[in-house]
Amino acid sequence: MADLPTLEVNGVVGDSIARTIRVLSSQRRLQTLLDASNVVASDLDLERVLRRIAEEALTVADAQFAALGVIAADGHLERFIHVGMPRDVSEQIGNLPAGHGVLGAVIESRNPIRLTELTTDPRAVGFPDHHPPMTSFLGVPITIRGETYGNLYLTNRADGPFTAEDEELVTALAATAATAINNARLYEEARRAQQLSAILGDVTSALLASESIDVFGVLSHGVVTLTQADFAAIVTSDDVGEEMFVDTARGQGASLIEGEVLPWADGAVCCAMEGEPSISSPEAADEPPFGGLVPGASVIAVPLVVSGDRIGAICATRAADRPAFEAGDLALLSDFATQAGLAVALSWARADRQRLSVIEDRARTARDLHDHVIQRLFATGLGLQAFASAHPRHAATIDRHVVEIDAAIEDIRNAIFTLRTRKTARTTRHRLLDVVTELSAGLGLAPQVTFTGPVDEDIRGGLADDVVAVLRETVTNVARHARATAVSIEVQAAEAGITVLVEDDGVGLSACDKAESGTANLRARARARDGVFELTHRRTGGVRARWHVPFEGEDDR
Q: Mean pLDDT over residues 332-353, rounded?
């Protein structure tokens, strides 16, 4: 009996120590939660915020694996960000979860779900091959203003099943995460709006700067910059369901696809042609809209509406090794298309007014020539003939002058006819100058441009399209790689054929190796017309690019 008080005292001391350990453990976990909340709330980049939430949830709950699933508008998992699983294992598993089974139950219930054994739950659908074993499970929703943005998923707690305390801690972290996600989304929206405003300002300024500007070229360039796409294009069609025409393209492979005709097929581009903004992902079963000529693993497309008429679609693509387009990119491009449509309408209206002014000036000049100049010349001719009748010895000389006056009257009448019937279509020379104007900003200088021979008369149709594409590709290569301080361009139309010469004083041919795909396109265009493309050193430094093709017939001229 003498030992009993000692045992009771030891029992009390043991309970006190246990309670102290639990308190210290709780304090440690609360401090971990506080640290995690501070980390999550300290970033404004949405992608980094999402990953940090998953990482900090894993730490707070002492789990082996954690994931954050972002829920799309239709209820499925739009993104699945996971931590704790080695990259090689993830690659062996393949496709990420789509939101079925227990994951889907968390989405549907919008309440936390805590399981001791994941695999025995009746809602479980099993794991794919190579998936690591998972036992205990905790799922907690992330709610923003009553809307479930996503869910936190945790598995394999270190010391047995997840506890009610774990659920409380992760739920608290999810509340902080919701605020951080909302802030990051607001910041991203503000940044996108600022970027959209800046690019739209540049586009509008460019469109209104000159009546001969390449309108669709400016838009395509703006799309590449705005969406960080690898390729962008303006696609048109005569009617829904008919073949599509790539009117203008910019970016990787643009010279290969610009001017091509595409079949009508299911996909994002055709949806946009029908008036519906659309986005496709790398997992989509649709064929790439531009074949294998340009990067096209992920595609977004929106309608282009000008003055109430849907005239085509604006498209952007990214390669397979780039992040796929998301709903935010589609919304951004839709806003751009809406504002760009207004800018295009203003540009075209301005050009129409200027063309109308030119036509009116020509008509006025034609009237003046007919009503005044021709009548005065005709009266002068009659006077000379009367003088010749009165002085026969001067008749021969006067008759020669009268013939010259008649010839002048005929020339003026031809000029009047030309002024009244002349069209205001853009010539090849104008198209080439548009390209030079557009690319001068990237060069940082104004190239010297020379035209030799009847360029507008000899370079027409498909040949004109090729020459414009060749000049664009060549000058773009100079802008990207040459670091030149002077560039000269000459377009020659002669009996031997058409020649495009571009010379620069840059760093030389070694830099041109970086533009191998571009030079391959130039050689392919030359070979298609039995011509040649050459890159040679200049004796004074820099590179001389020469593209030459012979005439093939009237259709190409």
A: 78
pLDDT of residue 12: 45
**Residue 434: other Cβ atoms inside 10 A:** 20
pLDDT in tens, 56-101: 778 877 888 888 887 776 666 777 888 888 887 777 777 667 667 7
Length of the chain: 557
- Rounded to whole angstroms, the Cα distance separating 89 from 418 reads 75
Beta bridge pairs of residue 133: none
CB 311 within 8 A of CB 304: yes
Tokens of 214: 């390449």
With 50 as the cut, is the pLDDT of residue 17 above it?
Answer: no
Choose among 294, 306, 284: nearest CA to 262: 294
Alpha helices in 42-86 (DSSP H): 46-61
Beta-sheet strand order (sheet of 147-157): 77-83, 63-71, 147-157, 137-144, 113-115
DSSP class of 132? P
How far is residue 55's CA from residue 224's CA, in Å, rounded to a whole number?
34
DSSP conformational letter for 218: H
- Three-class SS of residue 295? coil
Of 31-35, 132-136, 141-145, minimum mean pLDDT range: 31-35
Token pair recorded at residue 147: 């809307």
Give the E-state strand segments of 185-337 in sequence order.
231-237, 244-251, 261-262, 278-280, 298-306, 309-318
DSSP characters for 474-543?
A: HHHHIIIII--S-EEEEEEEETTEEEEEEEE-SS-HHHHGGGHHHHHHHHHHHHHTT-EEEEEE-TTSSE
What is the per-residue DSSP string for 405-446? HHHHHHHHHHHHHHHHH---PPPHHHHHHHHHHHHHHHHTS-
Q: What order do you get walking across the sheet with 448-452 strand by strand?
A: 448-452, 487-494, 497-504, 543-549, 532-537
Quote the pTM value: 0.46
Query: Which tokens go with 515?
Result: 């533009």
Helix (H), strand (E) at residue 83: strand 77-83
Which residue type, as a one-letter code, is found at position 351?
A
Residue 425: is it exposed, middle or buried by C-beta count within 10 angstroms (0-12/13-18/19+)? exposed
Give the closest residue to 501 by CA, choosing from 453, 457, 460: 453
In Å, the largest CA–CA distance within the chain is 168
Q: What is the pLDDT of residues 292-312, one digit of tens each?
A: 778 778 889 999 888 888 888
Phi, psi at residue 237, to the nearest 5°?
-160, 150
Query: Which amino acid is it at 103?
Result: L
CA distance 305 to 73: 26
State which amino acid sits at residue 536: T
Strand, coil or helix: 211:
coil
**Closest by alpha carbon to 466, among 543, 542, 550, 537?**
550
Six-digit token pair at 15?
Answer: 């309970």
| Residue 381 near residue 402 (C-beta atoms within 8 A) | yes
- Per DSSP, what are the bridge partners of residue 71? 77
Per the model's pLDDT, the better-predicted residue between 266 and 11 turns out to be: 266
